[in-house]
Amino acid sequence: MGDSAGLQFVSSYAFEAMQKVDVVRLAALSDPELRLLLPCLVRMALCAPADQSESWAQDKKLILRLLSGVEAVNSIVALLSVDFHALEQDARKEQQLRHKAGGSNGESILVSQLQHGLTLEFEHSDPLRRLRLTLSELLAIMNKVADSNGEFFLKSSELFESPVYLEEVADVLCILQAELPSLLPIVDVAEALLHVRNGDWFLCLLVANVPDSFNEVCRGLIKNGERQDEESVGGRRRTEALRQLCQMNPSQALNIRAMVVEECHLPGLGVALTLDYKPDTPDEAVSPLVSYVSGLLLGTNSKVRTWFSMFIRNGQQRKRESSSVLWQMRRQLLLELVAILPRSRSTRLPNDGGMEDEAASGYSGLREEHVVKASALLRLYCALVGIAGLRPTDEEAEQLLQLMTSRPPATPAGVRFVSLSFCKLLAFPTLVSTPEQEQLMVIWLSWMIKEEEYFESAAGVSASFGEMLLLVAMYFHSNQLSSIIELVCSTLGMKIAIKASSLSKMKTIFTQEIFTEQVVTSHAVRVAVTNNLSANITGFLPIHCIYQLLRSRSFTKHKVSIKDWIYHQLCETTTPIHTQLIPLIDAYINSILTPASKANPEATNQPITEQEILSVFQSSAGQGEGSRGGRQRFSITAQLLILYYILSYEENLLASTKQLALMQKKPKSYSAALMDQIPIKFLVTQAQGLQQELGGLHSALLRLLATNYPHLCLVEDWVCEEEVTGTLPLLRRMMLPSNTCRYSQSQLHQAFQKLPSSSPRLIRILEHLTLLSPGDLIPYAEALTASMALLLEPAVPRRILQTLNKLWMGLNTVMPRRLWVMTVNALQPSAKLLRQQRYTQNDLMVDPLIVLRCDHRVFRCPPVMDIVLHMLNGYLLGSKAHLQGHLKETADFDRQSQTISNLGVPGQPDTPEVTREELKNALLAAQDSAAVQILLEVCLPTSEEQQLGVSSKSLLRTNRGPTQGKQKLESQQLISRGVLGDAEPEGGLLSDLREVQCLICCLLHQMFIADPNIAKLVHFQGYPQALLPLTVAGIPSIHICLDFIPELLAQPQLEKQIFAIQLLSYLCTQYALPKSLSVARLAISVMGTLLTGEQMIRVEGCLFCVSACFFRTIFGCHHLVESCSCNPVLFLQRRAFILKGFHRSPVDSQCVCVFFFFSADAGQAFLLLHAHPAVSGGFLPGLPPPLRRRGSSAGASGPGLRVGCGHQSQGR
């Protein structure tokens, strides 16, 4: 508002005095300043105060004394003497009249016809008429503003434009608003004053006389303001008015600026207030303007960013104006930029020749106190150009390039400044437009390469700009321009649009003048590794450069060895793990196994040596999964990364064997001896507790273990780990006193050697060891396993065996592989121990059945047998993976010559490959079935146990099978053989044999579930019939045998048919299912077709068992008997078998059904039925109705049936 430039505004000093009602400061004001505040002071002196204190009474006297010498007070007092109530009524009537007339300037109630102009009328009028004239004019403006629909207009008014009467009009305006606040809301009055000349001056006086309304007025003006204030006259006037208000009350300037950002209105006002802001304690680092604009463009609020960017774009479309806020901002930023340039470069101020030129006496770098400000300015200019679309002038571009190519001191801030400057050059290459500027940039880049190592060492930072240079050079060589754009945006901390085509000039400079590919690779390998690399170290590190070079195969192309660098970097790691480590290892493994080109298959990197790998695990807890002690040299992170490297290398090597065979290249695999010395399970257990810090490394290790070492991922082991590492064991260890007695390995060994006399002491030692963690048990592993054979003696207490089993399972969670080998060697028979035969891990992988070639006393020691079965299950799984890996490793190289010779011969069958796969599957099947058969044989009682009366049927005491139908004499004969006796030993049902049987059945159940083909193979091979009650009752998954019993019945061998029928009889009793019924029908049909009289004797009990289980199979048995009617001898024989089975079985309705079907007549049936002991005891249940009708039709006597069944005939 240039029309009020000559007027005196209220000073900030005067406004603060009014706000605080500081009478002393008010008295110090000059007469012109005091004149502007008279309306408020007069009302304050004349109106009755709400504050009745003595201090205010004294202040009021001072105010009256202050006003007594001012002549204009009398006119203000006269204004206050008017009847404002009548004035308000007239004003409201005039508002209604204007509303009815549609806002036209018609008759006025407040003012009659004017004889002269408004100014003359105001001069000659009394106070009341002055109030009416001003009120009428103000209401007219307010009504027009309300009807304008936001369109700005400038109202010409003599009253508000005459310089002679401005003070009197201001007095009237202030009195009207103070006395008629409901008619004249101060926000509406402020809005109306923007539409008249000198409106900002009137507005400041109005607010100064009502200081409490400052925030209310400002918020209202901002809310009603334009989104882009410099686009219209109204916006600029509003901005200027608010700017004057903030100059009057500078303490609220930042709050008003916050309102501007909150409403996203008047962006020029926010910049203007920032330019006007003068902090009490100036910040030497970053200016308020840089902070404010950077916050708008780089903040998280996209709405604010878009709003301010539009302000920048729109401001550039207008011609350069000195009054434009945008150009004021740009000039201020340029002044700040020039002020921090080295003196040899900033020889003049922009557009100002007042500064004397200085001779460049040598080069001077950027001062340390200016580095942070320079970095902030660079980021701000990047945001202005990249986000807001600012087009820098030639002057701005020149000064920016001078700043970017400055040489800062070697500090962390200096490293940051160089990185930002480099990225800005990449983001805006148009800043380099002349050959001189291009040469300046090349010199500066060369300086970066030369000083990078010094900067990193002097600044004490791990992430320097040297890695970024290498990374960009690699991206340029591999033409990954999108990666360069991502790198630039990430470093600058903003998302800006960079065209890939704009990087062509920089690409030429980098690839041809500064960084050739060979220079990049040779320089990268000399870069020092990052010490204690973790995710906490941000920025661009050497690992990023090496990773990109590995991906582009630059090391192999130029024959540069990178193995040592990668090995040392993996060893220099800590938690939390850096996200680039796992991709680095994967890229390194790929560069080892896959040549850079088929023409040069030897162009690969070298793998890490076994000696280097072993050195990482030398001081690891559980080295070789067995040793402890010594200071740990490498961190757990380094050990886990090396473990991941080995496992991933071996997996990728097996997966790439076909391609490597075609290229006649066979990389070296790591030896089994190396893998045996690495504590794999211990490391994975440690990683499980560090999952948050290890990122995806733990899950990657589990995947590799499940694929290559399935025996280390048993479900039982995970469950056992929960029991060992759970809450209860942890609490027990916490309760263990620190000064408790600790036992050595020698004491434990001595206690074992003195058994059984040392049993109490051994129990104390073992119980103490159960309180230790699995890691602390590792030193005792050898003593525990070496003495296991001593525990097989008969006098050893069961508590010792159970405690040993618990300790072994705990050790199994941290060192399973070495523990298994030690245990297998310790449990060998005494003959093998004398020969000093020691098995290795590889021996047990090749032949898992070695586990079962142990001392025979193990088979009757359940706690030790549990350990043996656990090892057997693990080695069976490990053997599968071992054979699969061996097949992949050797098959492709064995068939290499054939594959090469068969090239070009279509249709050549791949017979050797198929044969090898089949042989492997056959070997695994034979291995599993042999283990099952050996375990089933263990379930049979020995000769000594048979003499003691131990039965293998003890597990199934209530299961009705074919043996339940035997005669008493036959049962006694079987008992004498120790196979099927019904009596248990005097000790009760629980015995060592039965416990071992339970353990074996559990393992067989798991094996059958994992691979049903094992169950099929074992039952096709067959096993002793005496074990059928045990297997059917003890192995829940044996019901799958119903699927292949028809196939077993179809076998030509008679023994297999009989075994199938015997198995079916127990399955039908255990699982009376519809599927069992259909198989039972088939079995009865086979019996009637193929079996002779002598063979029927072996399965007669099975026939009755099946018939008793399923009523419908009775008809099949009936036909089985009737089919022999032409042969009287065979007919009577089969009929006798069925009837004899009735007497040997418990009597129920099904038995009676069978009996009646095969009785010759009803009389005989009654006599036989009455002779059954169950009938004489009264336990025969009632017959079903269909059977009773059949009995009646057969001629059975009524009384006989009623007596036998316990029912009356009821006249049937």
TrEMBL record:
Keywords: Nucleus. One of its GO terms (biological process) is snRNA 3'-end processing. One of its GO terms (cellular component) is integrator complex. Signal peptide: none annotated. It holds the Pfam family INTS2. Its main location: nucleus. It is found in: Nucleus. The keyword Nucleus applies. It comes from the Eukaryota. The keyword Nucleus applies. Residues 951-970, 1189-1212 are annotated as: Disordered. Belongs to the Integrator subunit 2 family. This is Integrator complex subunit 2. It comes from Oryzias sinensis (Chinese medaka).
